[in-house]
């Protein structure tokens, strides 16, 4: 199990890497803390991003990751880039 309760961040970023939508939150509205997550179990959650009606057309990345609310330090991601966030999807708004 994780030793600390982490916050999930979901960002929508434009082509200049500016965050235009931010949906930081505790998993399941704080009802299922990360310290209770069993090792090896997949945890699923549905999150709705509200996109401003006046957002410019173009390509946007949906980014996800986790961080400590106390220190703001992000958890590392184990992937090809070795960073601290994952690009879930790129979408195009028209």
Describe it.
This protein is mostly beta strands and 94 residues long. The protein has one domain (6-93). The protein is built from no helices and four strands. It has strands spanning 6-13, 19-22, 58-68, 86-93. A four-stranded antiparallel β-sheet has the order 2-1-3-4, with no helix packed on it. A hairpin with a 5-residue loop joins strand 1 and strand 2. The chain is globular, with a radius of gyration of 14 Å.
List the helices and strands and how they pair.
Layout: E1 6-13, E2 19-22, E3 58-68, E4 86-93
Structural features:
single chain; 94 residues; mainly beta; 4-stranded antiparallel sheet; 4 strands
Strand line-up in the sheet with most strands: 2-1-3-4
% residues in beta strands: 25-35%
Number of domains: 1
Mean pLDDT figure: 92
Quaternary structure of the protein: single chain
What is the overall shape?
A: globular
Question: In a nutshell, what does this entry contain?
Answer:
By secondary structure, the chain is mainly β.
